[in-house]
From TrEMBL:
Residues 247-500 form the Fanconi Anaemia group E protein C-terminal domain. Residues 230-239 have a biased composition (Polar residues). CDD domains: FANCE_c-term (cd07439). PANTHER family: FANCONI ANEMIA GROUP E PROTEIN. Residues 189-215 have a biased composition (Basic and acidic residues). It comes from Danio rerio (Zebrafish). GO terms for biological process: interstrand cross-link repair. Pfam families: FA_FANCE. Gene3D superfamilies: 1.25.40.480. It comes from the Eukaryota. This is Fanconi anemia E. Residues 189-239 are annotated as: Disordered. GO terms for cellular component: Fanconi anaemia nuclear complex.
Length: 502
C-alpha cells in the first residue's frame, strides 16, 4: 500500500515519528530525537494515539486475498525493527498497556524475522518486569547445543579445526564469486564512459536527494503540527471563553460591562491609555470570589508575555492600591503558570512584569508566587534565577526574612540552595532562634549535599557573615555539618569555623 495513504491513519504529530522510523538504520535514533522535541514543546505529550493507530486493523492483499492486518504489520521490516528499537530507547516512558497491545499485534505476524522476535520478547520482559524464559528461538537453542557438543573436545576430528577449515573454504568460494562479479561489473563499466568516471557520485546524489525529501516531509509535518496546535488553541480558548462567560452571570452589571473592554485590550495587545486604566478600576469593588471569576473570564493565565508589561503598568497606576486578596489573585493568575513552565531564562517582558508587581505588592508576591514556587519542589535554574533577582532587587529585609523561613520549610534542591544563598548574601537580620533552626536544617541536609558546591558556598557565607549568631551549640552543629563535606572548599570551611570565637 502507498505510504502516503498509510500516513493518513495518523495524527500530525505521529506522522513525524512515522517519517523518522522509515529513515533506514538511523530511524530509531531519529524518532527518539523527534519524540524528545515533542515532549519538550508539550510535557503532557503521549505516545498512546500513535501506538493505538499502529494497532488498528487495515485491509490489505495477501496471496491474492483481502485480509485484515494491524497497521504496524503493513509497514516494512525496517520500519518494524526501528519501531521496536525506538521503544527500547524511550523505556520506561511509554504507556504500558498500549505497548503490550502493539507487541501482541506484531507477534501474531509470522514473518520469520528472528531479530524482531527477540526484540519483541525483550520488550515484553521489560514492560511486564519479568525475567523468566529465554530470548533464544528453538532453532537457535538447538544450534547452540549442537555447537557446544561439537566443540566440547577441540582435539578430536570435527572440532574447531574442521569448523574453521569449512569457513575458510566457504570464504575462498565467496572471494572468487566476488572477484567474478567485480570483473563483470568492470566490463560493464567500460561500456559506459559516464559511469566509469564516477559511479559512486550518482549513488551519493540519490541518497542525498532521498534524505532531503525526508527532511522536507518532516518540515511540512512540523508546520502542519504548528497550524493544528494554533487551531486547537483558538478553539479551546473560544470554548473556555464561552464556558466562563456563563459563570460571570452572578457579577454586578458594571463589572460585566468592563469585561469586554479589558478582554479586547488584552487580545489586541495594543497600547494602553488612561481609559484602559479606568476600566481596571472595577477591581477595587470586587470581593475575593468576584476577583477569581474576573481572572478566569479574562483568561489572565493565557495572556501573552508581550502584553504583561502594559497590563502591569496599568495595574500600578490604580489608586488606591489593590487589596491584599485582589493583588494575590492577579499575581497568581498572571504569573505563576508562566514561571512554573519556564525551561529557559525568563523573557524581558516577564521579568519586567514580575519585578514591577513585586516592588509594589511584595507581601502578596511572597505568598502568591514565591511561596508556591519554593514549596513545589524541583526548582529549575530558570525559576531560581528569577527568584534570586526578586530577593536582591525588590524585597525589603522583613520580606526577605519571610522568604527565608519559607525556604527552610521547603524540600531542598540546587535551586532552593541558590535562593537561600542569595538571601544570606543580602545580610539577613536573623534572630538567634531563626539561626539555630537554620543550623539544624543544615545538619539534616548535609549528607544529601556532601558534593554540592552550592551547598559549600552557602556554608562559607554562613561562617563568614553570621559569626555573631554562632553560639557553642550552633558551633558544634556546624562542625558536624562540615564533617560530611567532600568539596575542595572543606579546608576553607574548617578554617572559617576555627576563627569564630565566643
Amino acid at each position: 500500500m502507498d505510504r502516503t495513504a498509510l500516513l493518513q491513519r495518523f495524527d500530525a504529530r505521529s506522522r513525524l515519528l512515522v517519517h523518522a522510523l522509515h529513515l533506514g538504520a538511523e530511524g530509531a535514533r531519529k524518532a527518539q530525537m523527534v519524540f524528545n522535541k515533542q515532549r519538550k514543546c508539550d510535557p503532557h505529550f503521549s505516545l498512546t494515539p500513535f501506538l493505538e493507530s499502529l494497532c488498528q486493523q487495515e485491509a490489505c492483499l495477501h496471496e491474492d486475498a483481502l485480509v485484515l492486518k494491524p497497521l504496524a504489520c503493513v509497514f516494512s521490516d525496517v520500519f518494524k525493527q526501528n519501531l521496536l528499537c525506538f521503544l527500547h530507547l524511550i523505556h520506561p516512558g511509554y504507556p504500558k498497556d498500549s505497548v503490550l497491545h502493539l507487541l501482541q499485534c506484531l507477534s501474531e505476524e509470522d514473518g520469520g524475522n528472528q531479530w524482531a522476535s527477540a526484540l519483541i520478547t525483550q520488550l515484553k520482559r521489560d514492560v511486564e518486569g519479568a525475567r523468566k524464559g529465554t530470548l533464544l528461538s528453538s532453532n537457535c537453542t538447538e544450534t547452540l547445543k549442537s555447537l557446544c557438543g561439537r566443540f566440547r573436545d577441540t582435539d578430536v576430528q570435527g572440532g574447531w579445526t574442521s569448523c574453521f577449515e569449512a569457513l575458510e573454504a566457504k570464504g575462498e568460494e565467496t572471494d572468487m564469486s566476488v572477484l567474478c562479479q567485480k570483473k563483470r561489473k568492470s566490463d560493464k563499466l567500460d561500456l559506459d564512459g559516464d559511469a566509469q568516471k564516477d559511479p559512486q557520485s550518482k549513488k551519493v546524489k540519490m541518497d542525498f536527494s532521498s534524505s532531503k525529501d525526508e527532511e522536507g516531509m518532516i518540515e511540512e509535518e512540523e508546520a502542519e503540527i504548528r497550524r493544528s496546535q494554533m487551531d486547537q488553541s483558538a478553539g479551546s480558548v473560544s470554548q473556555a471563553r464561552s464556558d466562563l462567560l456563563g459563570s460571570s452571570k452572578n457579577l454586578p452589571d458594571h463589572m460585566k460591562a468592563a469585561l469586554p473592554v479589558i478582554k479586547e485590550l488584552l487580545d489586541a495587545e495594543s497600547e494602553w491609555d488612561d481609559s484602559s486604566v479606568s476600566a481596571l478600576k472595577v477591581l477595587h469593588e470586587c470581593d475575593p470570589n468576584e476577583v477569581e471569576v474576573l481572572c478566569s473570564v479574562l483568561c489572565l493565565s493565557e495572556v501573552s508575555e508581550q502584553c504583561l508589561p502594559q497590563f502591569c503598568s496599568c495595574l500600578l497606576k490604580l489608586a488606591p492600591d489593590l487589596s491584599h486578596s485582589t493583588a494575590s489573585a492577579l499575581i497568581t493568575h498572571l504569573l505563576l503558570k508562566k514561571i512554573l513552565s519556564l525551561a529557559e531564562p525568563a523573557s524581558r517582558c516577564l521579568v519586567t512584569a514580575v519585578t514591577s508587581l513585586c516592588s509594589r505588592y511584595p507581601r502578596p508576591t511572597c505568598q502568591a508566587l514565591i511561596e508556591p514556587l519554593l514549596q513545589k519542589g524541583q526548582l529549575g535554574s530558570a525559576q531560581a534565577d528569577l527568584l534570586c533577582r526578586l530577593v536582591i532587587d525588590c524585597l525589603e529585609p522583613h520580606h526577605r526574612l519571610l522568604v527565608f523561613r519559607t525556604a527552610l520549610g521547603a524540600s531542598w534542591d540546587e535551586g532552593v540552595l541558590s535562593v537561600i544563598h542569595a538571601l544570606l548574601d543580602s545580610k539577613l537580620e536573623l534572630s538567634q532562634e531563626d539561626f539555630c533552626l537554620f543550623a539544624e536544617h543544615l545538619c539534616s541536609q548535609s549528607p544529601h549535599f556532601s558534593k554540592s558546591m552550592k551547598f559549600a558556598k552557602m556554608l562559607l557565607s554562613v561562617l563568614t557573615k553570621y559569626q555573631s549568631n554562632v553560639n557553642p551549640a550552633c558551633h558544634h552543629t556546624l562542625s558536624s555539618v562540615l564533617s560530611f563535606n567532600e568539596t575542595f572548599l572543606k579546608k576553607s570551611l574548617q578554617a572559617a569555623l576555627k576563627r569564630i570565637s565566643f
